[in-house]
Design brief:
Elements lengths: L6 E4 L5 H12 L3 E6 L3 H13 L4 E5 L5 H15 L4 E4 L17 H22 L8 E5 L2 H5 L7 H20 L6 E7 L12 H15 L8 H12 L10 E4 L12 H5 L1
Helix pairs in contact: 1-2, 1-8, 3-4, 4-6
Length: 267
């Protein structure tokens, strides 16, 4: 896969899944705009790793819950790159900003979830597309399990926001099809070095052990590199006939039947 000479913006790419995506694209010759909100040092470290992989880019700060910040971020992309081939919407707030059950979540926490996901994606796509030519790639990182279930009660704000995000992917998939721009969502399962690590340690341990014991048929959590590999595939020309889809990248976890004990399912 060669993406040499292309330009990408990945929100939330100073760490975790976003960093994994940035490094994967850099390995394939993509110049990358590294976005961060607070941790400039982490963004600079990611950029250094991008350069070690033979590519280049720049860092850009923005709070994606603020429309004017998003617009300023894209102005910098336009100034630095002049064009954009790949836009990956990945940024999310820390768990404490939204992690409350439906009877307790505040309107501020609810707005934080929606502003960082659905609204940020809406604005981001509309800012990205004027910079894109035929063949542009737009991807959103979602968590489809959380958008269609209700068991993890404190996820209600983010789950609802991700459901709206996935709906936007379908609408934009249609809206941009004639321009040759594809719009898709990638849905990782629980992933190391991600939002999982911002949850209480007991919750982290329970989730990890559950997946290792069999809920994920491949017997482990995902990694940022796993997700980045899928993003890389969707950024290739070979994926040009796929748009408006939510693609699961979860080691088979979404295939499991919640009504049947895992011991019976995995044998």
């Amino acid at each position: 896969m060669s993406l040499k000479g292309k330009h990408a913006l990945i929100t939330g790419s100073s760490r975790g899944i976003g960093r994994g995506i940035a490094l994967k694209l850099a390995e394939n010759g993509v110049k990358v705009a590294i976005h961060y909100v607070h941790n400039e040092a982490a963004a600079k470290d990611t950029l250094e790793k991008v350069r070690k992989r033979g590519s280049d880019g720049f860092i850009v700060q923005a709070d994606v819950t603020k429309p004017e910040d998003i617009k300023a971020m894209f102005r910098k992309v336009a100034d630095e790159f002049g064009e954009l081939d790949i836009f990956v919407s990945n940024a999310r707030p820390e768990a404490e900003a939204f992690f409350q059950p439906p009877m307790d979540i505040t309107l501020e926490q609810w707005d934080t979830a929606f502003d960082s996901q659905a609204k940020a994606f809406l604005i981001g796509v509309r800012e990205a597309t004027p910079l894109m030519k035929n063949g542009g790639k737009i991807l959103a990182i979602t968590y489809a399990e959380g958008s269609r279930t209700g068991g993890l009660q404190p996820w209600v704000g983010m789950g609802s926001a991700k459901a709206a995000l996935e709906s936007l992917v379908r609408y934009f998939g249609v809206a941009l099809a004639k321009r040759g721009i594809t719009v898709n969502a990638i849905s990782p399962g629980w992933t190391e070095d991600s939002v999982l690590n911002s949850l209480p340690q007991q919750v982290q341990d329970l989730i990890t052990n559950w997946h290792v014991r069999g809920w994920t048929p491949m017997g482990r959590l995902g990694t940022p590199a796993d997700v980045a590999d899928v993003v890389g595939l969707f950024c290739s020309d070979d994926a040009g006939w796929i748009t408006g889809q939510v693609i699961y990248a979860d080691g088979g976890a979404s295939l499991m039947n919640p009504g049947v004990p895992t011991e019976i399912q995995i044998g």
